[in-house]
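The instructor's notes for this session suggest beginning with a concrete chain rather than abstract definitions. Hand out the sequence below and ask the class to guess, before any prediction is shown, which regions might be ordered.
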Amino acid sequence: MIAVGSGPAGLSAAAAFRARHPELRVQILTADPAMPYAKPPLSKEFLCGRDHHVDLHTPDWFDRRRLELVRGITVDHVDLDAREVITRGGRRYPYWNLVLAPGAIPVPLDVPGAENALQLRSLADAVTIRMAALQARSAVVIGGGLIGCEAAACLAGSGIATTMVAGEPVPLQRRFGLDAGERIAKLLSDCGVRFIGPARVVEVRDDGVTLDDGGCLDGDLVVAATGVRPDARLAESADIRTEGGRIVVDAHMHTSAPNVFAAGDVALAHNIAAGRRIPTEHWRDAADQGEIAGASAAGYPTAWGKVPGFHCAIGEARLKYRGWGIGYEHTRLVDHRDGFTIWYEASGEVVGVLSLNADDDYRLAAELVGTHVPVSD
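After discussion, reveal the predicted structure:
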């Protein structure tokens, strides 16, 4: 078996396959030259300068399982007829079963001077930003998504005058609504982050950015947290079915091609609890899907049925979301003494919950969302 990608989906797939076939060859191909690492800490503990080991496994872990980790190579295309993976240098890797788990790639910042902005997607990116922050007195974070919020809070917590610029009135409004955005903006303010929105950066300079209203913001350090998009190029070039930029798979992570599976950010997978295909972009979900893909490739198919979820750290606050991540019709806000819960509802059912210091609600959400319990009057 070959897994393309060394993130949680690729590693979980390889380990799951190996557990069921102790003797067959298993290879993991990745363009990243680093040993596999966890990405969530990159915008949290690691960027904040707190000691945190990001390595997922030691070299010995791979050796004991006889998993061949091939780093620093880029897969160019897949030959479905020959059942081979071909790298950019022309090397061919034959496979019997293939798991595509290339993850996502950053959405480029398309403005003059964009090359002066740093991205935060890889370990190398995080190291670069962390080193640049040591000399910075001011910073601008472009983008009001989850990664941008975490990064801005970390930079401000390091004593850097930090401004976040986003194209909506409050952070994450399009995703979680106005109530959530207002409370997230307050969390950022409590961390020392200045939020400007709706606004758009039209140029990145050596010493900051220029906004669409002509205003300028100083920034010794500029971070482009402009989101990511699934990397479905291998599937698209091989005429494997995709939809909306993701690889379409069933509940067992099987694609439209024989013996080819996909998992993680790149997959649009059928969730049996949801009764529909669900896109996810979160670490735990990628690991779960990878395990299913590896088991299915090994001939022991299981089905994806967990309710997706994630945690987000803004300073000392820990936001938790559980739900399908789909559109909602109504929200219900419940403020607590030291936090809040926002319930998201559609078609008379709870489809998600966002909580702060409300773990009981977070745990309840898994049951309500997963079992399609009607909303009480």
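Then share the key points. The chain has three domains: 2-105+228-297, 108-224, 316-371. Residues 139 and 162 are 5 Å apart (CA to CA).
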